[in-house]
Design brief:
Layout: H1 2-14, H2 25-41, H3 54-64, E1 73-78, H4 85-96, E2 102-106, H5 109-112, H6 117-128, H7 139-152, E3 155-159, E4 183-188, H8 191-197, E5 201-204, H9 210-221, H10 232-242, H11 246-256, H12 261-271, H13 277-288, H14 292-305, H15 310-317, H16 321-330, E6 335-337, E7 340-342, H17 345-358, E8 368-370, H18 371-380, E9 389-393, E10 415-419, H19 424-427, E11 450-453, E12 472-474, E13 495-497, E14 518-521, E15 528-534, E16 538-543, E17 553-556, E18 560-564, E19 575-586, H20 596-600, H21 612-616, H22 625-636, E20 643-653, E21 656-670, E22 687-694, E23 707-716, E24 722-733, H23 734-738, H24 750-754, E25 761-763, E26 783-785, E27 807-809, E28 831-833, E29 854-856, E30 878-882, E31 902-906, E32 926-929, E33 949-951, E34 972-974, E35 993-996, H25 1011-1025, E36 1034-1038, E37 1049-1052, E38 1055-1059, E39 1070-1081, E40 1090-1098, E41 1106-1114, E42 1127-1134, E43 1149-1157, E44 1163-1174, H26 1175-1187, E45 1192-1195, E46 1201-1204, E47 1212-1214, E48 1219-1222, E49 1235-1238, H27 1241-1255, E50 1272-1273
Parallel strand pairs: 1-4, 1-5, 2-3, 3-4, 8-9, 9-10, 10-11, 11-12, 12-13, 13-14, 14-50, 25-26, 26-27, 27-28, 28-29, 29-30, 30-31, 31-32, 32-33, 33-34, 34-35, 35-36, 46-48
Antiparallel strand pairs: 6-7, 15-21, 16-22, 17-24, 18-23, 19-22, 19-24, 20-21, 20-23, 36-42, 37-44, 38-43, 38-46, 39-42, 39-44, 40-41, 40-43, 45-49, 47-48
Helix pairs in contact: 3-4, 6-7, 9-11, 14-16, 14-17, 25-27, 26-27
Amino acid sequence: MIQKWRIALREAANLSGCHVNDQYETEVVKEIVDTIIRRLNHQPLSVGKNIVGIGVHLEKLKSLMNTELNMVSVVGIYGIGGVGKTTIAKAIYNEISHQYDGSSFLINIRERSKSDILQLQQELLHGILRGKNFKINNVDEGISMIKRCLSFNRVLVIFDDVDELKQLEYLAEEKDWFRAKSTIIITSRDKHVLAQYGVDIPYEVSKLNQEEAIELFSLWAFKQNHPQEVYKNLSYNIIDYADGLPLALKVLGAYLFGKKISNWESALCKLKIIPHMEIHNVLRISFDGLDDIEKGIFLDVACFFKGDDRDFVSRILGPHAEQAVTTLDDRCLITVSKNMLDMHDLIQQMGWEIIRQECPEDPGRRSRLWDSNAYHVLIRNTGTRAIEGLFLDRCKFNLSQLTTESFKEMNRLRLLKIHYPHREPFLEDQLFLEDHLPRDFEFSSYELTYLHWDGYPSESLPMNFHAKNLVELLLRGSNIKQVWKGNKLHDKLRVIDLSFSFHLIGIPDFSSVPNLEILILDWKSTSFRDSSYHGKGTCIVLPRSDGIPEWILNPGDNFSSITELPQNWHQINEFLGFAICCIYVPLADESEDIPEKESAHGPDNESDNKSEDESTHTWENETDDKSVAESFHKNEHKHTHSCHLRCFLSALGDRFDFQFVDRASFQSTCFCYKEDKDEDDESVSGQTWVVCYSKAAIPEMFHSYQLTEILARFHNYSEKALKVKEYGVRLIYSQDLQQSHKDADVRICRECRQDGTLQRKCCFKGSDMNEVPIIENLLELDSLCLRDCKNLTSLPSSIFGFKSLATLSCSGCSQLESFPEIPQDMESLRKLFLDGTAIKEIPSSIQHLRGLQYLDLRNCKNLLNLPESICNLTSLKHLDVQSCPKFKKLPDNLGRLQSLLHLSVGPLDSMNFQLPSLSGLCSLRELQLQACNIREIPSEICYLSSLVILCLGGNHFSRIPDGISQLYNLKHLDLSHCKMLQHIPELPSRLRCLDAHHCTSLENLSSQSNLLWSSLFKCFKFKIQGREFRRSVRTFFAESNGIPEWISHQKSGFKITMKLPWSWYENDDFLGFVLCSLYVPLEIETTTHRIFSCMLNFGDDSDSFLFDDLRFDQICECCYDEDASNQGLLVHYSKSDIPEKFHSNEWRTLNASFNVYFGIKPVKAARCGFHFLYAHDYEQNNLTMVQGSSSSHVDLGGHRSAVQDTNSTHSQRSCDTRSTVEDTNTDVERHCDGTTLIDGIGGWSFLANLFIGYAVQDTNFKSNILLDELVHIKL
């Protein structure tokens, strides 16, 4: 006894006391007494026995709940029935209730609130008042007392099993009733109820993992925490059936406890047909709370659509389906992940059981049938009008016994699917077309919305086929010749798939299916393997025609197209959208061109700055560019056959430079693209690709951005080298759809038809007239086109009497030498095209064109200057004086054009061109002064605050004003071919592209003292702070000495493989990597612009997933006449730019390939490299810079990496056990003491600084490509 006293006294002495401080002792004593009473009165709730995994839930909940915050915390615990929500709530109540002045746990609110509100109020008051009993006479009195008590006490209240908000109306209608630091916990099966109440800490109870499920089941079935050996296999089958649901594991374990193996086997067989009723009844509670529409859609998903795409299901099940799916998700009956519908296996079986109970003895009287029940009903002709859906796997059942009576009674049938679950029968010509349907076969249902019948045996749908409600029609691999006869209207039909229907001779008239979105007509089962379209528009792929279709306007022969949209396009009801079209052809069809791979991957002729091994090791059979390209094709494309076309659609506007609208992608792995086909195989001579966009495809965010143009860029990623032969665009208006065939011959050029905003047009394009003829109704005319009238020498002054004239085009009138005087003010004319004329001067009376916004004077070879009066055109937005070699002078008062957005001048022959004052051009967004012989850039250019694009290439200045950093909107700076430029000052922080190639006098960029690196670092840092993800800041630069040495891993060729460090995605030290490539000229001529590409993908083969493809355009006309020097391209990548789905050790092998698609002077990627960036490297080098070191050896810090070349298998040289470089093109010489020489601390520190900036950003950015409307037509 004495010993016990000693221990108790010792423990008491170790207890910390309460500090009275400035309080009265009586207050402190009262607090101590209250605390002791609270703990003594605390009665824990029973959570039951054999509880598994509860500790994890408690820790997660307590970490989410901060009871010290001066606010009311509302926690919502949700999940499917039987997952353990109430048990977890009881456990957390036992853990924390003693911390509050009062606490109450109200169990089973859902049932008790129907008739027991007064009793619930009494229980709530009893708990929060610490056992004191107050009699309340009615519900309203209870509300008042509860509200008063909650506001004075810090309480914990748990409302268990709430499924409607009104159930809390009489208990705690709002969280504002509670005192600060109180906590409310609500358990529910309905997430929406929790959101309505204002839950700020939602917590989803997940099912048990495999280990926890085994332990829980074993505790109930065997009274131990693992199965008995003889029952192990049966136990695992039961556990798999329960799928981690605690209720099922507990009920089935208790049910099977002590039973023989034969009883277990029998029970397992029964469970596959009929669920255990105790489990079923608990799960069905959520179903019973649905309305009739929601119940029907739940049963459709449970029986037919589990695992399908949400958009597909919503389309099939009708206008109420989208909201119903949301409700089912809220009620935890289904889950939606990556837009796919899923549900717990026991929830699905609950749905099946509901269907079975509709008529246990007669499946023909059930609403939904599948598999064996569906088959037996069909062959026995026992179907009734009760049947709404029938799904059948053709691989399991023979349908040769179908008769006229099979579907006759099913007049309420909505969903019919007789299908092959896999595509192999289509690919291997194993279609079971020996099935036959009688001639008088019919569908009697008027309700059919979804018909999917693979191998449909008849030549057409029945004559009495009712398609009024049909949404999808899929007859793949069928005997169909013609879908239906006559011109029936099917205005709800959105998808038709007739792929592999070899006997098809006609498709429906599209006027009968006005809302059709998807049409699939894939013909050759032996040729066609797979195709897909991703994008917001409607895609049509056709064989190559003789050219761009006549209805497509503005044809061209480049890889990109800019189309001007009508003003206020989103408000014009007549404007419907636009269509873009391009023709791709194999490069073999164009003798003047080379394969894009060839231009990108020419031979390796480098010799400078290489080790001895590097200089002697070259590609096998290396002789010239052509042989290397052929070798590349032979090795890389021998067994591949795919086509991958992309169109990048961007928006251009007055308030932004460009924003992505869509990234349309068509991909097909088709035999006809194969490189090594037999002579008898058909060859692809080209494809016509059309993508139609409605104006609704342009996001609403652009409506207020003054969107003016759409830029479409076409790219090819195919294994077979293709090129864009032609392209075109057409704006689509409602009147286009109404135009009759007789109007097709109306004489109007494509350019005029393109401008749909102008309706009263007069077009004389290409006429041989000498003068403009008399025009009728000239007062109503809004567009006069005189394009390419080669004999036209003058214009009459009367032309300016056309009071409605908005556009006057004289483009290409090569004999037009003068422009008439304008006698009076003219407000209507907005666009004046004089490009390609022989005009020498513009009359001063041009100032009378007060509404003029667009003046095009390109290629006016005789134009000398512009009159000063042009500066009075206060509405002028676009002034283009490019390629006017004799032009000498811009007006002195140019700054008065305060509305001017775009100004282009050059190239010029004059050596005395004087740049006037630009002060006042406050709206100017794009300034192009290319090859204007400018010797000094005026400092006032730094005050053009709206400038986004500045092109100064090909001039003779040696420096740029230091104040250029003040151009905070500048994103593109072109200094290419400025051969006298010696220094680049600090750059604007928003800059995204710097082109300094062929700047031969520019100081060495690898120097540690070079300001450019730190300036560019600020640009990157600003990009990160602005959260401009996946918009790289790229730099083109002249690099005659090869890739900088601080790029630690280098190799010859165009491909390199990185082995990312282990756990790279969560390693705070690893920041990312820099990619670099060096391009050298080829001796092959071509006539298109360059597109530099860096393609990144994970995996060891070409089919692995592509996660990024960076493309950078370089349009440099001066390269036509000059030798292109070597140039480098640097791309910087943070690990946060890599999509989150790759954040695992499974994705460590990262491939990078560098290409150039075509080119003015074709180039190839001769060398490439990468460098990993680590935080501690940055810190080390930053310290070295402060100390002023001129060079440094940086320890790689044990970072495990590997570089691997895929072009051949030669040899490997390792630096140490921590960093390995495998290079079969050339062996990269590296220091073997674990260090890498970095040439220029400035360059290295700039890159490390960049990735320090990246590392602190949100890594949850995800890339999305929308999968939308799809139309594939391959003929």
